[in-house]
Amino acid sequence: MVTAAVLYQEDGYNTSGRRLMGRQAASEGFLKAISSDATDEPLYCYTPTQQSFQNFCQRVQPWLPPTRPLRWVPEEQPEGLSEPGVLYRPDPVLSQLAWQRRYRNERSYSLCGVTHTLASKETMAAMGDLLIAPVQPWDAVVCTSQTVKTTLEKALGEWADYLAQRIGSRPQIPLQLPVIPLGVDCDVFPAGAIAQTARQHLRQQLGIGAADLVVLFVGRLIFHAKAHPVPMYLAVERAAQQVKQKVHLVQAGWFEDNRQEAEFKGAAAQFCPTANHLFVDGRQPQVRQMIWAIADVFISLADNIQETFGLTPVEAMAAGLPVIVADWDGYQETVRHEVDGFRIPTLLPPPGCGLDFAARYQSDRLNYSTFVGHISLLTAIDVGACTAALIRLLTTPELRQKMGEHGRQRARAVYDWKVVFQAYKALWQELGDRRQHAIGLAPLTPGRLPHPLCDDPFRQLDHYPTRSLQAGDRLILGEMAAPDQLQTLRANWMVSFGADWRISEAGINALLESIAQAGSVTVAEVLHQFGQSVGQSDIVAQVYLCRTLVYLIKFDVLRLV
Questions:
Q1: How many whole angstroms separate alpha carbon 42 and alpha carbon 286?
Q2: Is 342 exposed, middle or buried (0-12, 13-18, 19+ CB in 10 A)?
Q3: Neighbours of 79 (CB within 10 A)
Q4: Is the domain of 486 the same as that of 509?
Q5: Do the Cβ atoms of 138 and 115 come closer than 8 Å?
Q6: Do 261 and 199 lie in a common domain?
Q7: Which among 113, 138, 245, 427 is placed 20 to 30 Å from 231, CA to CA?
Q8: What number of H helices and E strands is found in the chain?
Q9: Could you tell me the residue range of the domain that residue 357 belongs to?
Q10: Are 136 and 191 members of one domain?
Q11: 227 with 371, same domain?
Q12: What is the per-residue pLDDT for 541?
């Protein structure tokens, strides 16, 4: 049974911070799904320290079945990843992990990442590295939508064409790019009597009448990196003028800074005076879970190139709300037009109109926020179509109910984590099969370097010293081998530095005692006698011994005859 070890860094899965991002919410959902999977297989965690593993254990404990064990794979021992068979990283940056694996055994485990935003040049550079890094056919970067996959394949294809022009050979895209959507836990969204009670309570709390209409937006309240609010304000204002009931626009999220807060609220009053505006902190867990109950319609007119999937419309569908979304990125795949809600047409300038933006961003004359902000301002949302969709939903309760129920069914059938996680398990099993049978790309052959630009320094720089330690070299004790002198050395921090990368003090004592009894020994004799006695494999033991011998020679504990 192939499973996955989770590469765990707390920030990547944390939704309680001041800057809640979509990738964190998605990663937390994944962590809950893999932790609560009904299996007796261990849940593996890959971290650099015991402390971070303990943090992981505390984090997953509420979701873990009682009989499921937890296993730690230390970052210093990646060979332990062969047991689960896959290392899952909550982003698409796999190149460094692939190089790390190449120092050991490339078929021992697979790598699996997942896309979030592809807009930043750092992310795209990492994607470009996949064409030259030793990723293999048994690795995968999960694309959360076909839109993302198309973007990635287009960019990698252009990069491959450049490499072909530059070096005369076009590399292939070596790893798998399956499409698996992000998921939601449908069971946590209010429904039935719970939803009705929450609706009454929250509406009372916010001063919303029982017969009033509520349009809800959930997400970051930031004009340049999520959705510009003014097209939404214009559409809500025009719709509010056409319906008989009072309309409230509730925005649940968080502001990037004080200026954005002032601008959002000022623009709401200026462009949408007919509606009542309410802003609530969407970072609070209770708000994130229950705010859906107050709404009649969900709206998200995303216009930003950071967006690749769009989790909040799926959450709204899981809560039984009809949705109005921009016909943009992953929204095109999650929301069925006139079934679950309405997709509002969007418009971009023709290709060739943004090359100056790209050049300035690439050279750091534009920072990332400014770059994506410029593009968002040139992404048009059809305000008229949005107004018409709002009027239809706000004036037709039966249509709201029908579309909301369609969305709820779709969320459970396609986007519930129980469904999505099964797709991950099937992928990991497929990657395991590929590890057994697929032909590797650029396999490491004997005598070749695992990483040409990061080789063993004792091989790469073997022309620096007079010579290297050899098996036939004969060793005797030096003056600093005397017990008092040796203790003085060990007490010195500069001398004891790096002790974990040599044999232990006990091993050194045994080595020195053996040399004292023999008078002199060769390096080959030391390797033969002690090469299996330091708690490591034979190869690693000999490496540690050779390093230790040169270290002891450095401080005159040993001498070469």
A1: 31
A2: buried
A3: 15
A4: yes
A5: no
A6: yes
A7: 245
A8: 22, 17
A9: 187-414
A10: no
A11: yes
A12: 87
Supply the DSSP string of 367-400, one letter for each residue: -HHHHHHHHHHT-EE-HHHHHHHHHHHHH-HHHH
- Confidence band (pLDDT; 50, 70, 90) for 286? confident
Per DSSP, 180 falls in state -
Residue entry with tokens 């992928």? 427
Q: Which two tokens stand for residue 332?
A: 């095109």
Take residue 401 and report the two structure tokens written for it: 């109910």
For residue 512, the SS3 value is helix
Kindly list the distances between the CA atom of residue 272 and the CA atoms of 260, 276, 277, 299, in Å, as whole numbers in the listed order.
17, 8, 9, 15
Share of the chain above pLDDT 90, in %: 85
Q: Give the percent of the chain with pLDDT over 70.
A: 98
Please tell me what DSSP assigns to residue 350.
P
First-to-last CA distance in the chain? 56
CB distance 322 to 341 below 8 Å: yes
SS3 215: strand
pLDDT at 534: 46
Helix (H, G, I), strand (E, B) or coil at 351: coil
Extract the tokens encoding 496: 């004891």
CATH number at residue 26: 3.40.50
* Distance, CA of 277 to CA of 268 (rounded, Å): 7
Task: Please give the Cα distance from 299 to 387 (Å, whole number).
Answer: 11
The tally of domains found in the chain comes to 3
119 within 8 A of 376, measured Cβ to Cβ: no
Beta-bridge mates of residue 395: none
Residue keyed to tokens 């490491």 = 444
Report pLDDT for 536.
54
Mean pLDDT across 221-235: 96
Instruction: Report angle CA 252, 257, 262 to the nearest 5 degrees.
Output: 75
At 20 the pLDDT is 64
Is there a contact between 533 and 504 (Cβ–Cβ < 8 Å)? no
CA within 13 Å, CB half, 412: 10
pTM listed for this prediction: 0.90
Mean pLDDT confidence for 227-241: 98
Of residues 448 and 241, more confidence is placed in: 241
Max Cα–Cα distance, the chain, nearest Å: 103
* pLDDT band, residue 14 (cuts 50/70/90): confident
H-helix or E-strand containing 113?
strand 110-114
Asked whether the predicted pLDDT for residue 240 surpasses 80, the reply is: yes
| Segment among 14-28, 163-177, 438-452, 474-488 with least mean pLDDT | 14-28
